[in-house]
Amino acid sequence: MVLLTTRELVMIGARVFCITTPVQRSSSIFFPNFPIRPVSRLSPATRPIVAMSTISKTQEELDSIFKQKRIVRSTVRKSLKAMDPSLRIQQDDAIQNTVLEAPWFKSCRRLCAYISCRSLNEVDTSKILSEILQHPDSNTTAQKKLYVPWVEDKNSNMRMLHISHMDDLVANSMNILEPAPVDAQGNEREDVMQADEPIDLFILPGLAFDRCGRRLGRGGGYYDTFLRRYQDRAKEKDWRNPLMVALSYSPQILEEGSIPVTPNDVLIDALVTPSGVVPISPCAIERM
Ligand SMILES: Nc1nc2c(c(=O)[nH]1)N(C=O)[C@@H](CNc1ccc(C(=O)N[C@@H](CCC(=O)O)C(=O)O)cc1)CN2
Ligand SMILES: Nc1ncnc2c1ncn2[C@@H]1O[C@H](COP(=O)(O)OP(=O)(O)OP(=O)(O)O)[C@@H](O)[C@H]1O
């Protein structure tokens, strides 16, 4: 185990966009620093972090990380529940307007987005979705193609299916709106993984995030599994990587090191917060 200061890592990294990211991108487990505190800025440059060489994970280590994840989820759920309703509405508006006005959103032609669920206190996506479904893009008059999640089973399998109307959605057992895999005419809905075209943009949900690209989901492993599969396919087909952008209320943004991760967790490229876009990965810095 090697202890490095952020300053040392900056010196080592050729193009370090976030100090701790190279640690996780090299598929090592990152051990979090507690306590969990929302932050409004990056940690001081002198803060020590832990870099680990590639190690194999014992079940005991994994159990400990998953336990820490559950603790973080529980803390963030509580702060989301305690959010003032008018602040929530204000943040929903700010986040959605930022997305709708962004060039990377305007130019995207094929995207996957989540259908927000009120009872899960997720950032609202209804305005973004209705814009996509109602209005062709004013610059090109081309319609965006929208795919949304459909949970296939309890083993982290999720598909992204094409929808054209909000009427295509029905509430599932988790009370989340999702498309029936077969439409009203009895036709199977188009599945992103079967379509032979790349996705430009993923709009992702989650419970907590940090400014280095770590994302904590709701514990099903659905998104990580899906994104990994999509990334493998994109590589195979030589497609450009999609932008993976998560939407986050302010209490969901945690201090660097507070989000426990395993090598299976997929890093996001950027966050949209009530204060604007936080580009994280080199691809986001270039494109956003
Ligand atoms: N809007 C939305 N759609 C989504 C997801 C999501 O996070 N948000 N998913 C992302 O994977 C998939 C569904 N996965 C889900 C996993 C857990 C829960 C949920 O209700 N969790 C409760 C806790 C349940 C428990 O601990 O037993 C919660 O978080 O409060 C919902 C959806 C696909 N669709
Ligand atoms: N102790 C454990 N050891 C190994 N795997 C576990 C353990 N606990 C949970 N899992 C598995 O890990 C997966 C959940 O991973 P994780 O908690 O990282 O998901 P998430 O990031 O919250 O979810 P999502 O990707 O859907 O947003 C599930 O498939 C679950 O079965």
Automatic annotation (TrEMBL):
InterPro entries: FTHF_cligase, FTHF_cligase-like_sf, NagB/RpiA_transferase-like. Its EC number is 6.3.3.2. The keyword Metal-binding applies. This is 5-formyltetrahydrofolate cyclo-ligase. Its cofactor is Mg(2+). Belongs to the 5-formyltetrahydrofolate cyclo-ligase family. The lineage of its organism: Eukaryota, Viridiplantae, Streptophyta, Embryophyta, Tracheophyta. PANTHER family: 5-FORMYLTETRAHYDROFOLATE CYCLO-LIGASE (PTHR23407:SF1), ATPASE INHIBITOR/5-FORMYLTETRAHYDROFOLATE CYCLO-LIGASE (PTHR23407). Signal peptide: none annotated. It is an enzyme of class 6 (ligase). One of its GO terms (molecular function) is ATP binding. Pfam families: 5-FTHF_cyc-lig. It catalyses: (6S)-5-formyl-5,6,7,8-tetrahydrofolate + ATP = (6R)-5,10-methenyltetrahydrofolate + ADP + phosphate. Keywords: ATP-binding, Magnesium, Metal-binding, Nucleotide-binding. It comes from Cardamine amara subsp. amara. It comes from the Eukaryota. The keyword Amino-acid biosynthesis does not apply.
